[in-house]
Each structure stands twice: as structure tokens, then as C-alpha cells.
Amino acid sequence: MSFFNSIGRSMQRAPRPPRRSTTPTSATFPSTESLPPSTPTSTSAPKPLYLCSPFVEAALVKGNFKTIVMLPKYADVMEWVAVNIFDFYQNLNQFYGVLAECCTQQSCPTMSAGPNLNYTWINQDRKSVQLPAPTYIDYVMTWVQNLLDDETVFPTKSGRDFSPNFPSTVKHVYRQLLRVFAHLYHAHYPQILHLRSEGHFNSLFAHFLAFGKEYELLEVKDIKGQPGAVVGVGALWEKWKEMGILES
């Protein structure tokens, strides 16, 4: 289902988390051209643990996620998307908070998301720069929270409508949150296993993917990457489709 032609109304959201520090580079909503591009590196890696049994099957929710993401009866699609974006951000931010001590400038000098893939950030001079993963993620989370706190983007008061730009805005949000998921899977899945949280994290990510596909928030190229710069979780996306967890 696409919501790009829908007319939104106001919505109510849960209390917001404490405000993060101001991002020292482009923390405002970037244009399509300024979204961080990906650049390939030249390393190889064995089959990642998240694709191995039993970890790939670990989940809190059994079955297909289609029923979870469907628009509830009488619900406004803009409000439904907004509430789910807020929840995905909150849950991913909590996971990252637990893993943050393992994600340092020394352990993660780049925003890696695959054996041959690093994401780059567009700075204030409109130049593509490599950033350590914790810096990149902090920029993303700060930017998303600033959007969530902006009444013109995510209205919470009665009588306020969603902006006509809301669909394109949340597509950019989704792309950046996907990159955070991709890095955590690629670089920190052993720590997730150590915490015995693979079922929780897999279910959160599967829900995120199913919702993004249902409402056309994700591009396949962002999930799978490009030849020579493959996104690690792209293989997980394909595996879960084979298993019937996600729609083909």
C-alpha cells in the first residue's frame, strides 16, 4: 500500500525521549542529493552469523509480518506511518544504547554495513566524508529526533495536518534507520548474541522491513546494495522471504 497520495490528519504520540546533543554537521533534513552515498572497500568476510541457523530463525513473532503492518480499520494512514516511525526509532535507539560501548571509533572507524561497503556522510560543505560508525549513528539519531520534535513534520496537536512533504521525509528517515540496522547486524551481531537478544532484534528488523515494503518506504537497492558494494542484511531480507517471514 502506498500512502503518498493520502491526506493526513494530526496524531497523538508517546512521550519523546530526552533531546540528544546538536549534530555538528548537517543535522537538518537532507535533500535527496545530500543523502550519504555508499562507497566500496576491498575486504572479504565469512558467512555472517545472522544468516546461520539457528540465529536466522530466532524471533519473538512467528509467521508472516503482513498482518502486523496492515492499516487498522478507521486509522489514518499518515498517523499510522508516523506512529510506527516513532516506535522503530525508539526501539532501535534503545538497542544501540545497549551496544554503544562496543561501537567505538577504534572498533568501528567507518560506517560499515557489508564486507565491501561503507556509508559516507555529507558534511556542511556538501562533501562526502567517512565517519566512524558511532559518529555517523549519532548524527542520524539526532537528525531523526529533531524531526520527531518538529510539529511541522510530526504534528501532535489537534487541528494540525501533515505536511505534503511528509511521505518523502519519512522515506529518507527510513533509509537512514536501515543503515543503522545494517551496521549493527554487520559489526555487532556477536554482541547481540551474547546478550541473547537475537530474537528481539530479528523481530524488530523484520517488522521494520515488512512495514517499509507495505508502505513503499524502502528501495530494494538500499536493502541489497549494488554489485561490489552489497549490503549485508540484503541476504537476510532474501532468506526471510524464503522462510515466509516477509512477503516476496
The Cα radius of gyration reads 18 Å
Secondary-structure element sequence? EHHEEEEHHHHEEH
Strands side by side in the biggest sheet: 1-3-2
Write down the overall geometry.
globular
Structural category is mainly alpha
Figure out the total of helices: 7
Which assembly state applies to the chains in this document? single chain
Largest sheet: 3 strands, antiparallel
Helix content: 40-55%
Strand content: 5-15%
What integer is the average pLDDT? 82
Q: What separation lies between the terminal Cα atoms?
A: 14 Å
Segments where pLDDT lies below 50 for 5+ residues?
Answer: 1-43
Based on DSSP secondary structure assignment, what is the total number of beta strands? 7
Explain how this protein is built.
The protein is mainly alpha-helical and 248 residues long. 42% of the residues lie in helices and 7% in strands. A hairpin with a 5-residue loop joins β4 (121-122) and β5. The longest helix is centred in the C-terminal third of the chain and has 29 residues, at 166-194. The protein is globular and about 55 Å long.
Summarize, please.
The protein is mostly helical and 248 residues long. Helices cover 42% and strands 7% of the residues.
Question: What is the secondary structure topology, with strand pairs?
Answer:
Elements: E1 38-40, H1 66-69, H2 77-99, E2 111-114, E3 117-119, E4 121-122, E5 128-129, H3 133-148, H4 166-194, H5 198-214, H6 220-224, E6 225-226, E7 229-230, H7 232-242
Antiparallel strand pairs: 1-3, 2-3, 4-5, 6-7
Helix pairs in contact: 2-4, 2-5, 3-4, 4-5
